[in-house]
Amino acid sequence: MSDERTAILVEYVRSQLLVDPDRPLDADTPLISEGLVDSMGLVMLAAFVEERFGARIEDADFRAGSLESIRDVVELIRARS
Q1: CA-CA distances (angstroms) from residue 49 to 22, 73, 78?
Q2: Contacts of 51 (CB under 8 A, 6+ apart)
Q3: Is 65's pLDDT higher than 80?
Q4: Distance from CA of residue 12 to its chain's centroid?
């Protein structure tokens, strides 16, 4: 199931959040520190995760630096599902 979640999230980030959709992206690509996703993108990502997977991401989760990659987001979904 986490592979399916990862694929869904990679596709969402690539199609909805990246300025350059041709940029290489995988589950371990740093989204925030590499500047791939801005603050509005994080809000959109959190809303997508809550709607699609039923797991709420708080602002504090992003500020704590624990959600740097898609793999981190998938782990948070797993923990909160």
Answers
A1: 23, 9, 11
A2: none
A3: no
A4: 8
Q: At a CB cut-off of 8 Å and minimum separation 6, what does 26 contact?
A: 10, 70
pLDDT at 26: 95
CATH code, 30: 1.10.1200.10
Number of domains, the chain: 1
Distance of CA 45 to the CA centre of its chain: 6
Displacement of CA 38 from its chain's centroid (Å): 12
**Ramachandran bin of 46, using left for φ above 0, alpha for ψ from -120 to 50, beta for the remaining angles:** alpha
